[in-house]
Design brief:
CATH topology of the largest domain: Aldehyde Dehydrogenase, Chain A, domain 1
Distance between the termini: 76 Å
Structural class: alpha/beta
Largest sheet: 7 strands, mixed
Bound molecules: adenosine-5'-diphosphate
CATH architecture of the largest domain: 3-Layer(aba) Sandwich
CATH superfamily of the largest domain: Aldehyde Dehydrogenase, Chain A, domain 1
Strand content: 15-25%
Strand order of the largest sheet: 14-15-16-13-12-17-18
Number of strands: 20
Radius of gyration: 23 Å
Number of helices: 15
Number of domains: 2
Length: about 500
């Protein structure tokens, strides 16, 4: 097992206690407390990180408010702002190896995947969003005011930043989720307090250093690592935060909405999923079979849009199941830093216990594993890529988000029934369709209640396309021009001439 060599900068970074970023300064928690982050491939401590709580959030919000109201940030032209955001993308690529290593050590994902996907996607998001800074145009119009006959008017709209934004992100794509949040917030001119997930704060803290290096003024981006119930809850409830953007579980998303009610801050949410992935017998099976497997096994199933409910039309069911099972068995499960690893460990002990409990539950409920079904007998949080058949629509493994490498399959017969079955979930984040019949693909794309429908592909996240959910998968959209709505206020200016 060849191991990718550790970047010496990474060793240095993890060896020191990591402080938090407030007002442009790297500072310890006010309490002096730290928490540990672990390498999920061994379960051993990787680094010690300042543990922010309510007091630190308060300090960070004050710094953000000052930077927003008084700092040089608001006086930059949109072009200047955009260029700083663009520079963050450049710096990410200049430090690609170091960031990919931090991501792998902290999260567990294969280094090659972090390097090929997470890092360039993060850079690209900043590059894409940087261009919007100069394009946040309003419109002009001549309003009709019936009770002022003969009057003349000039009216226009302005797009303005929302203000101080709280951002709470998960551990599955730590750097990329920070990029999705920070890119649009900064391009629109907001100031931010970002709380990374307690499992994976390291790449985001390194990003904080790069953000300062890019020239983003002090206090515009504040990063407060800490636990959800303390730091996260304080940020969501803070009375001087104008908007909260959250990515994570639907359960916590509901808590965010409650916490935000105090000052009615704006809320955007990107939450869970249990996405249907549909394979027709006329699909190109060379693509559809590995595609159906990786729709779940990519990122070890720790992907909110993972295609975890596999629907296969009856005549092709046995062949597709056999192909996906073979693919699952061929995946090499191991530490993310090993060169031949296809799938790393789950992110944490808690997640490992959650996923293995679902495997147990699935077996008790009568589902049958045709690939995987167990944890690996070794240190670290490794679970086999698993394909379950003999599933029923009321089984927990069919209905609930597992967030692990567990794919459940069912045959379908009746095309008219298919969309109803696929939509029979409280979630609506994604869906996949594999067919060579374009008419069938587009008809289904219209019927599926999901924020993203993939056709003959899966798990593609371009910065140009909006991402978000129907139903309990969230509010609003990330990425694309659509995200700008949630980071700006629109002001109407009405003048009587
Ligand atoms: P998971 O269960 O997969 O860890 P969560 O939804 O719990 O996902 O976590 C996503 C993010 O939400 C993390 O940054 C976490 O710290 C944060 N979080 C968890 N609970 C709360 C809460 N009550 N209020 C605010 N943020 C929270």
């Amino acid at each position: 097992m060849a191991i990718v060599e550790l970047d010496p900068l990474v060793r240095e970074f993890t060896a020191k206690e990591r402080p938090m970023l407030i007002g442009g300064e790297w500072v310890p928690a006010m309490s002096g407390n730290t928490f540990e982050t672990y390498d999920p491939s061994t379960g051993e401590v990787l680094a010690h990180v300042a543990e922010g709580d309510k007091a630190d959030i308060d300090r960070a919000v004050k710094a953000a408010r000052r930077a927003f109201d008084e700092g040089p940030w608001g006086k930059l032209t949109p072009s200047e702002r955009g260029r700083l955001v663009h520079r963050i993308g450049d710096l990410i690529m200049e430090h690609a190896d170091e960031l990919a290593t931090l991501e792998t050590l902290d999260n567990g994902k294969p280094f090659a995947v972090a390097k090929a996907a997470d890092i360039p996607l993060s850079a690209d998001l900043f590059w894409y969003m940087s261009g919007w800074a100069t394009k946040l145009d309003g419109r002009t119009t001549e309003p009709h005011v019936p009770y002022k006959p003969g009057s003349e008017w000039h009216a226009y709209t302005r797009r303005e930043p929302v203000g101080v934004v709280g951002q709470i992100i998960p551990w599955n794509f730590p750097l990329l989720m920070a990029a999705w949040k920070l890119g649009p917030a900064l391009s629109c001119g907001n100031a931010v307090v970002l709380k990374p997930a307690e499992q994976t704060p390291l790449s985001v803290l390194r990003l904080g250093e790069l953000i300062l290096e890019a020239g983003i003024p002090p206090g515009v981006v504040n990063i407060v690592p800490g636990y959800g119930e303390t730091a996260g809850a304080a940020l969501a409830a803070h009375p001087d935060v104008d908007k909260v953007a959250f990515t994570g579980s639907t359960e916590v998303g509901k808590l965010i909405v409650e916490a935000a009610a105090g000052n009615l801050k704006k809320v955007s949410l990107e939450l869970g999923g249990k996405s249907p992935n549909i394979v027709f017998p006329d699909a190109d099976m060379e693509k559809a079979i590995p595609g159906a497997a990786m729709a779940t096994f990519f990122n070890h199933g720790q992907c909110c849009i993972a295609g975890t409910r596999l629907f296969v039309q009856k005549s092709a069911f046995d062949d597709v199941v056999a192909g996906v099972a073979d693919h699952a068995k061929s995946l090499k499960v191991g530490p993310g830093m090993a060169e031949d690893t296809d799938m790393g460990p789950l992110v944490s002990k808690e997640q490992f216990e959650r996923v293995t409990a679902y495997l147990q539950k699935g077996a008790t409920e009568g589902a049958r594993a045709v690939a995987g079904g167990r944890a690996l007998e070794r240190p670290g949080y490794f679970v086999e890529p698993t394909l379950l058949v003999d599933t029923e629509p009321d089984m927990s493994i069919w209905r609930e988000e597992i967030f692990g490498p567990v794919l459940a399959a069912t045959p379908f017969d009746d095309l008219d029934e298919l969309a109803r079955q696929a939509n029979d979930t409280p979630y609506g984040l994604g869906a996949g369709v594999w067919t060579q019949d374009i008419s069938k693909a587009h008809k289904l794309a219209k019927l599926l209640k999901a924020g993203t429908v993939y056709v003959n592909t899966y798990n593609i996240f371009p910065a140009e396309m909006p991402f978000g959910g129907y139903k309990e998968s969230g509010w609003g959209r990330e990425m694309g021009p659509e995200v700008l709505e949630s980071y700006t206020e629109t002001k109407s200016v009405i003048c009587e001439l």
